[in-house]
Amino acid sequence: MSVRGLVVVLCWSLGCYVGPSGVGNETDAEGSSGGQGSGSGNETNATNTTNTTNPATTNPGTDGGPTSDSQGSTDGSSGDGAADSGESSGGEMSGCESGPLAAPIPGCAPSPPPSTGDIHQDCVDRINQFRWECQCLPPLARWNAAEDCTDQQSANDQNGGGPHGNFGACGENAQNTCPNWGSENQIISGCLQAMWDEGPGEPFSAHGHYINMSSTTYTRVACGFSSSGSGVWSNQNFSP
What we know:
The protein is α+β, with helices and mostly antiparallel strands. Helix content is 24%, strand content 21%. The chain has 4 helices and 8 strands; from the N terminus they run ββββαβαβααββ. The strands form 2 sheets. The protein has a 6-stranded mixed β-sheet with strand order 4-3-6-8-7-5. It has a two-stranded antiparallel sheet with strand order 1-2. α1 (119-135) runs parallel beside α3 (184-197). The longest helix has 17 residues, at 119-135. It is globular and about 45 Å long. The termini are far apart.
């Protein structure tokens, strides 16, 4: 995995501030004003949306809570996200009988589910794995109809547009970005983990990836991928 300089981009309705922030693999997030946990101080660089771009580099800890192999659902459908071995007699995974947890399980870092052979599905499954195993949140549907657009959007961002350079082009309300990681598998195992590890809190610029991933406002997600000599770029677009 390559080591890169990071930038924090704080974008208000007029203009952006860009400054250095450590080293590591980059992740970038944009969230809508309706996203869970976003506040009045959120940054914006798109009309009627609040966004931020910020780095996340860590991948600590092991899963200390309920476990299952969560699976993403297809567009317009829902999935239970729990494997038989982790379910209670009531159909919920053990530890999730009372519904979503108020906060994620500290240090929750489950191993990625086995690959389906479809990187778009693997991405949705991984997001849903964090939602379910780490916080007992219901799964997001796979937003199939937006995948081709999100692939193209990722390519446009990678080829000169920059993080969130084409935000909103696919009808999304929030977006996380893994820019130029070493491989698709590193995005699934590392980038998405780093995003979740931000956890809840304020400001949105420091927690936006987790807020987008864990939001109960959004019901579906489309993952897009683009590869070039610079690496693999992935946008994850969220929508109600």
